[in-house]
Amino acid sequence: MTQWNLDALYTGYTSPKFQQDTAQIKTLIQQMSTLASQLPPTITIEQGHAILELLSRFQLVSRKVGTYLSLRSSTDTTDTETVGWRDRISALSATAAKPLTQLNKALASIDLEKAAQEDPLIQQHRFYLQEIKDRSRYLLSDEVEETLSKMELNGSDAWDNLQSYLTSTLEIPFQGKTETLSSIRNLAYSPDPAIRKAAYEAELAGYDKIKDAIAFALNSIKGEANVVAAMRGYDSVLEMTLVQSRLSRKTLEAMLSAMKKYLPEFHRYLRHKAALLHYENGLPFYDLFATLQCDHSRTFTIEEAREYLVKNFDSFSSEVSAIVNRAYDEQWIDFYPRKGKVGGAFCSNLPYLKQSRVLTNFDGSLSDVVTLAHELGHAYHGSRIQDHSILNTRYTMPVAETASTFNETIIMNAAIRDAADDQERAMLIESMLQDITQVICDIYSRYLFESEVVEKRKSEFLFSAQLEEIMLRAQKTAYGDGLDHEKLHPYMWICKSHYYSAGLNFYNFPYAFGCLFAKGLYAQFLKEGSRFVDQYNRLLNATTISSCEEVAAMAGIDLTQEDFWIASLEIIKQSIDQFIALTPMD
Asked: Mean pLDDT, to the nearest integer, of 358-365?
């Protein structure tokens, strides 16, 4: 019961269902090629119907197979059978690039204004079709699209797999035992300061074995991103990401501007925590997650975590707590770290099955319970979009973090409210600030790091030593004097898989977006009470068929104005003030 069950997808590679679906992918690609070759430059509504129906069938089967392979791989990157199937399916899927490009160009020719008024199916997919029309100017020739897709198999996709494999199989000697990277990083939450420091030192030493190979992976992925962005006509990789994210540059700039103005508040929190732990020059990196001593501090079993989540989500919505129970009862969750399993945590939505799957590396800390709440927020988000057509079930990176961070806020605020005394309250607020500091300071450092790497990669290859320097420079800017500059983490680019998701560049600022957007929404919930829940559900439902700005407007929010972001950051500042007031220096 501590590992997820994937039988709802497939029972194995030899199952008739898996064999049928993998064969169906090939058949559907052939059908798409045939249909694409028969279409005129401007298509009729009936032809648009045929394309949408064929694309829906292809999306369904290819996503099921692809998700199954990805989930199998994430829990055992050493499984040669999975690696073999991923290679075969990736190679097959690459042959779909050309007909998909042709079909998208055909769909872009539809007069949407007229067709949407005449046809319910076109109206249902109007946002999807408008996006295809808007992005058609970035499409290359059919042959080049096909070539790029095939080249990615042995390019960015392969480098991504290498990073996953090396980090998941890395063995790190520690106190007479061999630890995985995930388990050694989890020791950052140990109550023993000597273990935290020793684990950090062992982690840094362990990277020597893989840093050069992963430097090549990062250079190759970002180099490819630069080339592809330029070929498609984007101004930059960042612009390409913003278009893919359905987010305006004006919104990003407003958010980053507000974040920079409030960084000193986070530095103030970190300096105060450092002083509480008797450091004079700021907090060492290995004590970022040090938990303050509290007579009431506790750890959780996975069942205790369930009870805690269900109890506190019930106060917001029984539908949210119901997702927690389903996830446990139906074995959606893979809980514990083990060799071959990737680090971190994620949620994979399966809207076509009205389910999700969650991966964590649970060790019982409050932070791990919050992580579980976060990932189950993604699962709840998935439940709000599962009744859309398959073509309307993709939301973008920024809004992807809305429900997850909202869940976090519910859990932490409930824990703080119910604290037994000021000592426990201070500990819980500090735990919350740890997480928020990650999505503001750490995320900002990642944004700075990736920005510099992408820019420099246009003209040079960046060896590990250079990447370490860039990372340290980014951390010093983002964390300021809150951290001890002699005890930072030069290898954070190795262990964060987000840099290596070939199709998701700048997979960093969406976390800050999600945190601050969710804080703003939670403030509305506090004002409106239960009346807010229906609006929240409608907002989540709209995330797959609207821009980020349109989604926010449903809650009366203008994301392009710095004032909104400042208001959310001000809420966090109040928590910092409260924490410092509760923990005066002796």
From this structure: 93
Long-range Cβ contact pairs of 133-140 (< 8 A, separation 24 or more): 133/107, 133/108, 135/243, 136/104, 136/105, 136/108, 137/233, 138/232, 138/233, 138/234, 138/240, 138/243, 139/101, 139/104, 139/105, 139/232, 140/101, 140/231, 140/232
Q: Which of 423, 313, 437, 426 is nearest to 376 (CA)?
A: 313
- Overall average pLDDT of the 109-115 stretch: 91
The most distant pair of C-alpha atoms in the chain lies apart, rounded to whole Å, by 80
* Contacts with 106 (C-beta within 8 Å, 6 or more apart), sequence order: 36, 39, 43, 47, 48, 51
Kindly report, residue by residue over 173-184, the tens digit of the pLDDT.
Answer: 999 999 999 899
Kindly tell me the burial class for residue 146, based on how many C-beta atoms sit within 10 Å of its own C-beta (0-12, 13-18, 19 or more): buried
Averaged pLDDT of the chain: 94
Is the distance from CB of 537 to CB of 191 less than 8 angstroms? Answer: no
Render pLDDT for 239-276 as a digit per residue (tens, 0 to 9).
999 999 999 999 999 999 999 999 999 999 999 999 99
Q: Give the relative orientation of helices 302-313 and 366-385 as an angle to the nearest 10 degrees.
A: 60
Angle between helices 80-94 and 156-169 (to 10 degrees): 160
Contact 16, 84 (CB under 8 A): no
The secondary element (H helix, E strand) that includes residue 90 is helix 80-94
Per DSSP, the three-state class of 349 is strand
As given in the structure block, the two tokens for residue 186 are: 């989890």
Domains defined along the chain, listed by start = 16-150 (1.20.140.70), 221-294+408-586 (1.10.1370.20)
Q: 369 pLDDT exceeds 70?
A: yes
pLDDT band at 294 (very low <50, low <70, confident <90, very high): low
3-class SS at 289? coil
pLDDT of residue 297: 65
405: left (phi over 0), alpha (psi -120 to 50) or beta: alpha
| Identity of the amino acid at 497 | S
Q: Which residues contact 242 (CB under 8 A, 6 or more apart)?
A: 248, 249, 252
Give me 484's structure tokens.
């001890």
CB of 133 within 8 A of CB of 112?
yes
| Per-residue pLDDT at 585 | 83
- The model's pLDDT over 5-59, given as tens digits with 9 standing for 90+, comes to 999 999 999 999 999 999 999 999 999 999 999 999 899 999 999 999 999 999 9
The DSSP line for 126-166 is HHHHHHHHHHGGG---HHHHHHHHHHHHTTHHHHHHHHHHH
Q: Tell me the CA distances in angstroms from 449 to 297, 442, 453, 472, 547, one per residue in order.
A: 35, 10, 6, 9, 27
Supply the DSSP symbol for 364: S
DSSP reduced 3-state for 483? strand
Backbone angles phi, psi at 462, to 5 degrees: -105, 110
pLDDT tens digit string along 71-81?
999 999 999 99
Q: Which of 8, 29, 27, 26 is nearest to 17 (CA)?
A: 8
